[in-house]
Amino acid sequence: MKTASDLLRQEHRQIETHLDGLRDALVSLPAPRVAEVRHHFQAIRTLAALHFRKEEEIFYPSVRGLDPELLAEMDEQHEESRQAERDLEALLAGLPEAPSERDLTELHRLGLMLDDIVQTHILAEEDRLLPWADRTLRVEEQHALAVRMDRLQS
User: Fold this and answer.
1) From the CB of residue 133, how many other CB atoms can be counted at a distance below 10 Å?
2) Could you give the angle at the alpha carbon of 8 between the alpha carbons of 90 and 11, nearest 5°?
3) How many CB atoms lie within 10 A of CB 139?
4) Model confidence, pTM
5) Radius of gyration of the CA atoms of the chain, in A
6) Rounded-to-integer distance, Cα 1 and Cα 13, Å
7) Over 70: is that where the pLDDT of 32 sits?
8) Which CATH number characterizes residue 39's domain?
9) CA-CA distance, 31 to 98, in Å (whole number)?
10) CA atoms of 93 and 77, how far apart (whole Å)
11) How many domains does the chain have?
12) Could you give the angle at which helices 4-27 and 139-151 cross, rounded to 10 degrees?
């Protein structure tokens, strides 16, 4: 049976696959690659939305009392990620069929900002929060959390 920490790590790998695709599409951003940016951005948003729900509704509340300061930092990173998503979504929604050089520069900037924010959060969780949770929570607690988190899939 998987643990809650392992489930979150697995979801991080899925998100990172699309972050890699987003970065690749942004590298030399000719207009035709905008479709790739949209595709990876939507996948990131979809995966992150469910992932954040699992963390905020189930995982974080179970460990918040043990280290409120660390969890406050994780909450702040979630909000930064959501803001970056809103900014990129607004730009993509208003992007004309033939984007200007300025539009593409802004797309590049916002896309890389989202990548940086999400990667920073993943690293913070995997370097600090999840190893700490692995040491602090009993195996049974981890399994019970994983079961509850899996139920959010449906």
Assistant:
1) 23
2) 55
3) 10
4) 0.91
5) 17
6) 19
7) no
8) 1.20.120.520
9) 7
10) 24
11) 1
12) 50
